[in-house]
Amino acid sequence: MIYFEGANQEVRFYLNGQFVGEHKGGYTRFCFDITSHLRYGQENLFAIYVNNVYNPNIPLPYLPILLSLAVSTGMSICSL
Questions:
Q1: Is 61 helix (H, G, I), strand (E, B) or coil?
Q2: Residue 39 CA from chain centroid, whole number
Q3: Whole-angstrom distance, CA of residue 50 vs CA of residue 67
Q4: What residues contact residue 79 under an 8 Å CB cut-off, 6+ apart?
Q5: Distance of CA 74 to the CA centre of its chain
């Protein structure tokens, strides 16, 4: 397994030229099982594509905090 603490916003992970997986979700943790893609006793090439272009389909990591704050204080949120 290979673990990532987070990568904003979209990630595609390749190992030795083979697509292993993708993750969408901003700063959330994620992992990939790379066991079947490893070349034991040889060099392994990792390629990680990270796309940080704004995607409205991926929620911002601070949105729940803002919404909670707005509800508890009566504040209104005009734009994010």
A1: coil
A2: 25
A3: 28
A4: none
A5: 32
Task: Return the biggest CA–CA distance within the chain.
Answer: 60
Instruction: Indicate the residue type of 66.
Output: L
Beta bridge partners of 23: 11
What is the rounded CA–CA span in Å between residue 33 and residue 20? Answer: 8
For residue range 19-56, what is the model confidence (pLDDT) as tens digits? 999 998 877 788 999 999 999 999 999 999 999 888 88
CA distance to 15, 39, 40, 49, per residue, from 36 (Å): 10, 8, 10, 20
């995607």: which residue's tokens?
55
| Predicted TM-score (pTM) above 0.85 | no
